Amino acid sequence: MKKFILGLFLVVNWVQQDIFAQTKPAFTIAFGSCNRQDLPQPLWKEIIKNKPNVWIWLGDNIYGDTEDMQLMKAKYDQVLANPDYWALTQVTKVMGIWDDHDYGVNDGGVEFPQKEASQQLMFDFLQYPKNTPLRQQKGAYHSQTFTQGGKTIKIILLDARYFRDPIKRVKGVYLPNKKGTILGKAQWKWLKKELTNSTADVHIIGSGIQILPKDHRFEKWANFPKERNKLLKLIAKSKAKNVLLVSGDRHIAEVSKYENSSLNYPLYEMTASGLTHTWSSKWEEPNQYRVEELIIALNFGLFEFYWGEKPSVTIKVKGLENKTLLEHKIDLQK
Q1: Max Cα distance, the chain (Å)
Q2: Domains with residue ranges and CATH for the chain
Q3: How far apart are alpha carbons 158 and 246 in whole angstroms?
């Protein structure tokens, strides 16, 4: 009888451990954007609770909006002095790319005169080594690969500011720039190399501005239709496995889903924006690609990866008190 009870205990314990292993993510990536250095920053403690392996800044990491690089540095230092953010940097790998306010000018692009100095300050903030080749490169685009449990995740961060051609705005609406570039020749060449023949199991492409949405009147890749189409064609032609898009900028959170016959799987984009501020009032905004609901609240995003027989990623939007505001599961290709 004692042997039977002991055996039963071992079986129950094994089942409990197996269930826990299945429910605990194998790898977690957290990300967010729109972080005013002079506002309360209540989400860092909540982000740490999720034990992310990587944190990705997706732009407007500070609100610099200046050509005075001493002032820009002082604003970065405000974030670095936040004890909760500092605590995150001690337990999590930090990566990042800029959008416009941390670049130095609202809606800015190739014309910004301080972009080289601003790039160095962002890399300082991200605590990238002084001798990294990125500091000699024109443009802040870069990638990094992580391997865990026999699976490889490549994170590719695009610079949608340094080379971006001008765009006109009339009565609050951006007019399409049908011939202009977002990435520039060198970055396009680099991106093609990063995706083509890549052996990574998952590819995450990050952009400060949204890639898939076309319907709203604000900054987006769709304002440069040639560039957006070029990116989608490159993703399909490269045959890179399990591409996921992430973006910021909008002070909202949403999930977009794009399906096309040239892709053999749906392409998802997770927008997470509003670490310190969001829309002051709630209204509906069209997005033909949106799945789930539009989130108007302080938020950060998560990718929780699960390997095994049926690999998947769960997209989550979380907010204050670590509350889950949105959740969407995606099956991954083996």
Answers
A1: 82
A2: 25-331 (3.60.21.70)
A3: 10
pTM above 0.85, yes or no: yes
- Look up residue 79 and give its DSSP letter: H
pLDDT digit string (tens) for the chain, length 334 residues:
555 454 444 444 544 444 444 589 999 999 999 999 999 999 999 999 999 999 999 999 999 999 999 999 999 999 999 999 999 999 999 999 999 999 999 999 999 999 999 999 999 999 999 999 999 999 999 999 999 989 999 999 999 999 999 999 998 889 999 999 999 999 999 999 999 999 999 999 999 999 999 999 999 999 999 999 999 999 999 999 999 999 999 999 999 999 998 898 999 999 999 999 999 887 889 999 999 999 999 999 999 999 999 999 999 999 999 999 999 999 999 8
- Quote the strand ranges of the chain, DSSP E: 27-32, 54-57, 93-96, 142-148, 151-157, 169-170, 173-174, 202-207, 243-247, 253-258, 267-272, 290-295, 300-306, 312-318, 324-331
